[in-house]
Design goal:
693 residues, mainly beta, Immunoglobulin-like, six-stranded mixed beta sheet, 3 helices
Length: 693
C-alpha cells in the first residue's frame, strides 16, 4: 500500500489554514446561541458498514467534496484513492447488506491512478469517474483520466488529460446531462494553469469550456459543478476572486463565466468564509448552498447560501469545538430544506492520531446546527470525513471517512470506513433555557436556567469548557445548577448548559453569550454654557475599566483589554478653557466597549468693562474697553444699535475696538459692547450711558 502521507497530501492547503486555530478560544466568539444535537428533532444511530483494509478492498475513500452514489435498490458506489490490488485505488460497490465488492483496480497506467472523486451512474448502470494521476504517463506521473466502468466491469478511458492547454488533475466528480454529456472541473491545467471547467460529450470528445486565469475570475476549482435546467453550470474556486479567497461562479451555455460572489469581502478575518472547496447544492428555486473550508466567525469554515439575486448569506459559522471545523465537502438537501454535511476537523478534541476527527451535522432551515456524530478516530467509527453524504428515500445518511476504522491497516491510522446514520426517535429532555436571554447588556445580569422536564439536573460552565450530565443526573463535567443560586454575570461570559437524568437522556448542548458593555462614562460638570475655565473629571460605575476620550471631535475607542486604540487614556482632570466637545467611552477588565458619551462645553467670553464707568460728566471722556479673556475681540457701537462678534473674533455688527484708540465721548452717548472669538463664544451684551452736562 502507498504511504498514507502521499494520499493525505491531496488535502488542500486551504483546509490546513483553519486547522491550527485555538479551538477553546474559538468557542467564545461564535454566534450567540448554538444547538448541538437537537433534543426536539430526530436523532441518529451511527453504524460502520465497512472498514477498509487496504488490500484487496481499497483504502482512503475520499470522493473529494461529493458523496457516494446510491441506486434504487440501495446499492452504494464509490471510489478509494488508495489500496486495492495495485495500491492505486479502486471502484467498489457495497450492496444493501453491507457487502463490498471491488469492481475495478486501477493500475497506474493508461487507466489512471488515485480516483479522488465520486461517481456518476447512468440509467443503464454504467459508472463514470475521474482519476487524479496517470493516464498519459505511468504513475506517479500523468494528469489524470476520465473513465467509464460498464456493468461487465470493463473500464474505458474516455479522455486522458494532458495539462496545458488541456485540463489537468480532476479532483472533483462529474455531473451528467440528459444527453449523456459529462461536465467537471480540474484543479490544474488550462491555458493559464489555474484550472478548468470541461465537457466530455457522449461521443467521448473533450472540450475545455473555461480556463481560469487565477485572478478575479477564480483559481483552482477543487469541487465539481452543478447543472440547472437551462444548462448553466455553477461551481466554486478555492482561491482567486476579488479578494483572493475563492469564488462562487456561473458558466452559462455560451461558456461565459460570471463570478456570483467573491469571499472575504470584509477583509481579514474573512467572516463571510474563505476557501470553498466543494461543489454546490442547488434547490428547486435556484438557490445555491455550499461550504467554505475556512473563515467565518472563527476561521473554522461556514455553510452559505447564494440566492437567485446573487446575494450571499452565511447560514452557519463553525466554532471548531464541539460542532466541527473545515467543511470541505458538499451539503445535501432533504425535502424540507434541511442541509446535511460533514466537517473534516473539529468536533472531538484529542481524537485519533491527527486530532480533531470531524463531524456529521444537520443544519435546519431555521439555522440551528445539530451534530449527528463526532468521530473518535480510534473507536472504530472512522475519522476525518472528506466526502459529502448520500441521502436515501428513507432519510438514512451514508458517508465515508478517509481515516480510522480498522486500525490494523496503515500503521494504526486506519484506512477509512463506510458508515450509515439512521434516524431514530429518542426520549430526550428538552434543552435548558436562559433568562434573561443571550445578548448585550450594560449592567450585571443574574441568569437563571430552567428545563420543562421534571426532576432533571442542569449542568453548566462559564469557562468555555463543555458540561456533561450522566443518565443518573450527575454532572460529570461543569457545575450543578441550583434554582436558588442564579448565575451572576458581571463581565462578558459564555454559558454552556445541558440537562439530563431522572429517566431522560442528555439534552442537546446549548449556549448563551452575554456581552456586558461598560456603562457610558459620566462628566463631573454637565455639558452647558460657562463663563469660566472648567476642570472636568470622568468616571464610570464599572470597576477597573479604562476611559478613553477626545477633545478634537474624533471618536475614541477602547479594546476589551482596556487599551485606548483611539483618543487619550483618562487619568487626571481635563481643563476646558475654550468651547470644547469631549467624547468618552469605557471598556476593558472583562467589559466590552460601552456606548459613546458626549458633552459640549461652551465657554462664553466675560462681558467687556468700561473705563471710566457710565455716569454724568461735565467734560468730554475718553472711554477704554477691556476683557479678562485673553485674545478676544471687543465690538462696540455708539449709535444705539447692537454690536455682534463671531466665534472667529470678527465684528459682524458695530466697530472693532482697539486698545490704542479709546472711544471719545464729547456728548451724551450710549455705548454697547460685546466680546468673543479665540475659542470663546460671544459674551453677554453690556451697555454704558454717558451723560455730558
Amino acid at each position: 500500500m502507498n504511504n498514507p502521507t502521499q494520499h493525505r497530501s491531496w488535502i488542500p492547503g486551504m483546509r490546513r489554514r483553519v486547522a491550527g486555530a485555538a479551538l477553546a478560544l474559538a468557542i467564545m466568539l461564535v454566534p450567540a446561541f448554538l444547538t448541538i444535537g437537537s433534543a426536539q428533532a430526530q436523532t441518529y444511530t451511527y453504524s460502520v458498514l465497512h472498514a477498509f483494509t487496504g488490500t484487496p478492498d481499497g483504502a482512503y475513500p475520499s470522493s473529494y467534496g461529493a458523496g457516494a452514489t446510491l441506486d434504487a435498490e440501495g446499492n452504494l458506489y464509490d471510489t478509494t484513492s488508495g489500496g486495492g490490488t495495485y495500491s492505486l485505488g479502486t471502484v467498489f460497490e457495497m450492496n444493501a447488506g453491507g457487502k463490498v465488492t471491488v469492481l475495478y483496480n486501477f493500475t497506474g497506467q493508461a487507466d489512471g491512478a488515485n480516483p479522488n472523486a465520486g461517481l456518476v451512474r447512468d440509467a443503464q448502470g454504467n459508472l463514470y469517474g475521474t482519476t487524479g494521476y496517470a493516464g498519459i504517463s505511468p504513475y506517479p506521473f500523468g494528469w489524470g483520466t476520465l473513465f467509464k466502468l460498464d456493468t461487465a466491469g470493463t473500464v474505458t478511458v474516455l479522455h486522458t488529460f494532458t495539462n496545458n492547454p488541456d485540463s489537468a488533475q480532476p479532483l472533483a466528480g462529474l455531473v451528467q446531462d440528459a444527453q449523456g454529456n459529462l461536465y467537471g472541473t480540474t484543479y490544474y491545467g488550462g491555458v493559464y494553469g489555474s484550472g478548468t471547467v470541461y465537457e466530455v460529450d457522449n461521443t467521448g470528445k473533450e472540450t475545455v469550456l473555461y480556463s481560469f486565469t487565477g485572478k478575479t475570475d477564480g483559481y483552482q476549482p477543487y469541487g465539481g459543478v452543478v447543472l440547472d435546467a437551462q444548462g448553466n453550470l455553477y461551481g466554486t474556486t478555492a482561491s482567486g476572486g476579488a479578494y483572493g479567497q475563492g469564488t462562487v461562479f456561473k458558466l452559462d451555455t455560451a461558456d461565459n463565466e460570471t463570478v456570483l460572489y467573491s469571499f472575504c469581502v470584509q477583509g481579514n478575518p474573512c467572516t463571510d468564509g474563505a476557501g470553498p472547496e466543494a461543489a454546490l447544492a442547488l434547490d428547486a428555486q435556484g438557490n445555491l448552498y455550499g461550504t467554505a473550508s475556512g473563515g467565518g466567525a472563527l476561521g473554522h469554515g461556514t455553510v452559505f447560501k447564494v440566492d437567485t439575486s446573487d446575494h450571499m448569506t452565511v447560514l452557519y459559522s463553525f466554532a471548531g469545538l464541539p460542532d466541527g471545523a473545515s467543511p470541505v465537502a458538499s451539503v445535501v438537501l432533504d425535502a424540507e430544506g434541511n442541509l446535511y454535511g460533514t466537517t473534516f476537523d473539529g468536533g472531538n478534541l484529542g481524537c485519533g492520531p491527527w486530532q480533531n476527527c470531524g463531524t456529521v451535522f444537520e443544519l435546519a432551515t431555521a439555522g440551528s446546527e445539530t451534530v449527528l456524530h463526532r468521530f473518535t478516530g480510534t473507536g472504530g467509527d472512522g475519522g476525518n470525513p472528506w466526502a459529502a453524504l448520500a441521502l436515501d428515500a428513507k432519510g438514512d445518511l451514508f458517508g465515508t471517512t478517509f481515516d480510522g476504522g480498522n486500525l490494523a491497516c496503515n500503521s494504526g491510522y486506519g484506512c477509512g470506513t463506510v458508515f450509515e446514520l439512521t434516524p431514530a426517535k429518542l426520549t430526550t429532555v428538552v434543552a435548558p433555557t436562559f433568562s434573561p436571554g443571550a445578548g448585550i447588556y450594560t449592567a450585571v445580569q443574574s441568569v437563571t436556567l430552567a428545563d420543562t422536564a421534571p426532576g432533571v439536573t442542569i449542568c453548566y460552565t462559564t469557562n468555555g469548557s463543555l458540561p456533561a450530565v450522566s443518565a443518573a443526573g450527575v454532572c460529570t463535567a461543569g457545575l450543578t445548577y441550583s434554582s436558588s443560586s442564579p448565575i451572576p454575570v458581571s463581565t462578558s461570559t459564555t454559558i454552556y448548559a445541558v440537562a439530563g437524568g431522572n429517566g431522560y437522556a442528555s439534552s442537546s448542548l446549548v449556549r448563551a453569550i452575554y456581552t456586558i458593555d461598560a456603562p457610558a462614562p459620566t462628566f463631573s460638570q454637565a455639558a452647558g454654557i460657562y463663563t469660566t475655565v472648567q476642570s472636568l473629571t470622568l468616571a464610570d460605575t464599572a470597576p477597573g475599566v479604562a476611559i478613553c476620550y477626545t477633545t478634537n471631535g474624533s471618536s475614541p475607542a477602547v479594546t476589551t483589554a482596556g487599551v485606548c486604540t483611539a483618543g487619550s487614556t483618562y487619568s487626571s482632570a481635563i481643563p476646558v478653557s475654550t468651547s470644547t466637545t469631549i467624547y468618552a467611552v469605557a471598556g476593558g477588565n472583562g467589559y466590552a466597549s460601552g456606548s459613546l458619551a458626549r458633552a459640549i462645553y461652551t465657554i462664553d467670553a466675560p462681558a467687556p468693562t468700561f473705563s471710566p464707568a457710565a455716569g454724568i460728566y461735565r467734560t468730554a471722556q475718553s472711554v477704554t474697553l477691556a476683557d479678562t479673556a485673553p485674545g478676544v475681540t471687543i465690538c462696540y457701537t455708539t449709535n444705539g444699535s447692537s454690536p455682534a462678534v463671531s466665534t472667529a473674533g470678527v465684528c459682524t455688527a458695530g466697530l472693532t475696538y482697539s486698545s490704542s484708540s479709546p472711544i471719545p465721548v464729547s456728548t451724551s452717548t450710549t455705548i454697547y459692547a460685546v466680546a468673543g472669538g479665540n475659542g470663546y463664544a460671544s459674551s453677554s451684551l453690556v451697555r454704558a450711558i454717558y451723560t455730558i452736562d
